[in-house]
Structure formats: structure tokens, C-alpha cells
Amino acid sequence: MLEIENLTISYGDHKVIDALSVSLSVHCIHGLVGMNGAGKTTLLNTMAGFIRAGQGTILMEGNPLKRADLAFLETENFFYSHITGREYLGLFKAPAGVPDIDEWNRMFSLPLDQLIDGYSSGMKRKLALAGVLRQDKPLVILDEPFNGLDLESSRLLSLIITRLKQRGTTVIITSHILGSLTGVCDHIHLLRNGKIMFSRDKENFATLEQDIFKDVDPGFFDLVNSII
Amino acid sequence: MTSRIIRLRFIQLYRGSADIGLFRALFLAIVLLPLISLFLIQRVGVHPWPIVIPVGTLYIVWLIHSRRKDYHFLLTIAPHPERVFMAEYVLFTIPVTVLLLSAALYLHVLIFCATILLLAFSVPARVSTISRTVRLPIIPAGMFEWQSGIRKNLVVIILFYIPGLFGFYQIWLSALSLLMLTMIFVSFYSEYEPLNMLAAGGYRSWGFLTRKVTRHVGCFALFLLPLFILAIVNSEYRLITAGYFLASVNLLAFSILLKYYQYRPGAYSGAHQMLTTLASFISVILPVAILVAVFNVFLAAGANQTLKRYLNAGN
């Protein structure tokens, strides 16, 4: 199990994650949804070790989660200028058994010998994804991985995620597009005001959208209509 | 991993230098760098240069460190990004360390190296979370570079401004303060705004440029005015003091014009930062500052050409 217990993270006086506790089964695909500012990225950044939690613990199979246990794709990816895709992928340490870069790239079809500066945003996203996945870690965290991907690449990503699960990897994904999550996830969790409001299993995805929006104030729609 | 990253940095430098252009690269290598080196070798033992050289270098390192965007990326690929930072900064500052050692300034070297290590092992400010917004009602709404830059550098600006006010007592304090403040303010223009912000005012290229330069340079001159008055009142170097203040204002114009000469929507330019820092340092030799002023005229024409593509299209 991946257990998050009593996790609290604040920026100044503002509590972004508020005593969050949740247990996530391993070797599964978990989706995380929530409105902008709900705390999704903060939670993932904390799991990745980028942010130190004010209090609480994150345990994986009973041991504190270490940075070495996970591979993390951020919402916005960093690329050094004037380097090629091949040089970039060379920075990610791949364990024995992972195919070499050219073999790996057969899935992504990227022009690896060109400078990354000339890549489109979708190609950059695929390159970052290729690097993250090459590390072959037991936990893979993908923050908005479908952003900027075309239909074909989104399909490829869904296939890769499903394959990762089959190989025993635990995957956590966030997305604003509910459909992209329901297609691959085993469980989806709604984060609101720094807390997990509810979790749904695959069998209950049919009513998910309804459940997410049931608390939205109907006056909000009137407000939009009155402004635009 | 550290050696792999350092190797990549050298590859970046090599490929990036090709972007500067052959003539400018040759000019830099054959004329400017030897000129600056000669100047620094001559001055390293003379007060106040034993302080100005390491403090200036540390400021540049701090500037690079605080603007780093690769901290999270390095965390995902290397267990200790601090080692990468340390290796980069130590390599970058070798010439200054050698310069200080050549003048037998051992204590300076010790403090200099210790500060480099401290910087390398600190979390870059860019990734630290901003929890409070400093209100800046004095800055006009359109001067977003200043709003952002001052918020990022407020403490350092105050730290360098206060000693400058004692210029009437020790003129070198004023000189140090002026150099540092100029370097801080010219660095505000290394990030390029997106196209919609550029076009928001509805100006044509030349109108946009003249408005931007006069407004920003005017505000900078006003900001420096108290330092200038206090430095010139009791200083015996009135002409030189006036020259340096003009050079500072001129450097700000250089930074703005260079930004729009190289403008690419929403980009960040390391070359801009490097060139403005270099221009700030060489402007310490006042005749070179005049060259920068002449260069600004050509830069303005180039910036106008670049902006035409974005602002005059369809008109």
C-alpha cells in the first residue's frame, strides 16, 4: 500500500493540503482530479520530494517514500537549450533490461538527433515522458501527462500506462480531462480544499461526473450567464 | 551524473557561442576578454577592487543560481543537484579565484569560496514558494519587468542601495552600489513577454520602443537620483561620478534594446543576461561606456526591425 497519513502542507497561512489521509493500493492506476488550486500538484510535488510537508507521512509498503522509488513527470518540463533529444534521454539512468535509446524511441518516433529547441510542444512532452519512463521505477507519477499530446500520442500514453500496471508499477495520474482518466484508471480520487472528498472504483465511474459536480453552486452558472 | 551534466553544459556553451555570430565571438575573444582581464589584473590589488571583483562575481553567481529553472529536473535525475551546482560555479569562477590568489588575497579567496559553496547548497529562490506579495504601488502598471524584478530582488536592492547613500563619505561605496544596482535592474529584461502583452498597448514598433525606453530609463534615473546627489555633493570626482551615472542609465537602455533586438515571444534569454552583465562590467572603463552608447543607436534600429514583424504586421 501507498499510505499518506495526516499530510499537511501550507504556503504561509494558507493550508493547501489539510490533514490528508488516504491509502492507495499498489500495482494499480490511480487518477487524481480536482479544481485548479485544489492541491493536486502540491500533493504530487510533496510525494516527489520537491516540497517538505509541515506534518504527516508518506509510506510505501511500510517504508518512507524515497525520491529514488519514483519517477515524476511535472506539469511543465525543463529542457536545457542547445542539446539534442538523445543527449537529454542520456541523462536518465535506465536500469539493466531497459532497451537502448533508439529501441525505446520506436514508441515515440522523436527526431532524437535534432536540438530540442526545434521540437513542438507535443514532441517535448513526449520526450519528457520517454525520459521519465526509462527510469523504470516502482512508482510513476504523471502530472497532467495528456496536456499537449495529439490523439495518437494520447492513445500511446494510455497503452503505456496500462502496460506499466501489468508489469507491477503503481501509477498516479492527474488530468483535467475526466475521459482520459476513466479510460485507464482503476481508482479515481477527488481532491477538494486539500482533502480527498471521495474515491471511486472502476465499477462506479459511470456516476463520477455527476458526483464531482453535485456540490457546485448552481448560482455559479447564473453568474457566467450574466457576465458573458 | 555531475560530470555528465557538466559535459552537457560545455556542449551548450559551444553550440550557444555559435549563435552569437563569428564576428561578435571573435571580437569578444580577441578584444574584450583580454581587455577586461588586463584591467582586472592591474586593479586586483588596488582598493576597492579586492572587494568589487569577488562581490561582483558572487552577485553574478547568485543571479544565475536564483534564476535556475533546472532544480526540480535535476532532483528527478540526480540524488544531489547541489553537487552539480557546486561543480558549475567552481568552474565558472576559477579565473577570479586565480586572480585573487595572484594578488595574495588569501582571506578573500577563503570567504569567496565559502560563499560559493553556501550558494551551491541553497535551494534556488525561483523554486522557493512565494507566500506574500510585496505591494508596489509606486511602480506604474505597465512596468511589469520592474514589478517582477523588484519582488524577486527586493532585499538585495535595499542591501545595495543603503551603502550607496554614504557616497558623500566614501565614494567607492557609491561606485559599488551603483554597479550592483545597475546589474540588478538590467537583469530584469532577460525574460521576454508573450506576444499578447507586447501588442496590448496597440503601438507600432518605433512608438513602442521610444515609449518603453524613455519611461524605464526615466524611472531608473529618478531611482538613482538620491545616490547621485549624495555622491556628487562632496566628491572630488564630480565629472567621473556624473559619467558613471550616465553609464548606468545607458546600460538600462542597452538592456531594453537588446531584449527587443533578440525578442522571441515568451522566451528567456541566457545570452541577454550574459551580454548585459558583460556590458555592465566593461562600462566600468568609462570610454567603453561611450562605445555602449554608440552601440545602442544600432541596437535601436535592430530592435525596431524585430518588433516590426510583431507589431506592424497587417498595418
Structure report:
The complex is a heterodimer of chains A (228) and B (315). With 228 residues, chain A is α/β, with parallel strands linked by helices. Chain A has a single domain, classed as Rossmann fold (3-Layer(aba) Sandwich). Chain A has helices spanning 40-47, 85-89, 101-105, 121-134, 151-166, 178-182, 208-213, 219-227; strands spanning 2-11, 14-24, 29-33, 55-60, 63-64, 70-73, 139-143, 170-174, 187-192, 195-201. Chain B is mainly alpha-helical and 315 residues long. Chain B has two domains: 1-129, no CATH class; 136-315, no CATH class. The mean pLDDT of chain B is 82. In chain B, helix 3 (49-66) packs parallel to helix 9. Classes of the chains: A alpha/beta (228), B mainly alpha (315). At the A-B interface, loops of A face helix 1 and helix 4 of B.
Order of secondary-structure elements of chain A: EEEHEEEHHHEHEHEEHH
Distance between the termini of chain A: 47 Å
Q: From the 3D structure, determine the CATH topology of chain A.
A: Rossmann fold
Tell me the major beta sheet of chain B.
Answer: none
The domain count of chain A comes to 1
